[in-house]
Amino acid sequence: MVDGVKHLQRVQVISWLYLLVICVVSYVLWSWTFAWSTFAGGIVSIVSFQVAHKDVLGFVDSLTETGKEIDDKSQQQAIKKGKLGFLLKFWLRIIIIGVILLILIKYGKVNIFGLILGLSTVVFAVTFTALNVVWHYFIRRR
Length: 142
Fold this sequence. Notes:
This protein is an all-alpha fold. It has five helices and no strands. The chain has one domain (about 1-140).
């Protein structure tokens, strides 16, 4: 579990560093609007990832606390309630992201391509971290 937490922290750090780099490069090579759009998409992506991480940890903790003996009806109901709460939080988060993106696109002066570049921040960080893990375990034979 410690490796998993270490890798998630690495994903978060890489996400922030990558966002900083692409915002600076966007400002230098293109424009302030493109850099702002990249920043807005990156913030949405990173915050969504952090909220999802917290929700998943809470859900897994609720399962491990109640999952010892499932003979009791109240424990089964607690598990169902935990699953339902997790799913509701997931869909609420997706809806909030959709509303934020709608507002940014419709009323904000954002560049769509910059927004998409920013939204790919966590995808890049996860891919980079996964390739790093593969490198350490398979190439170095650890």
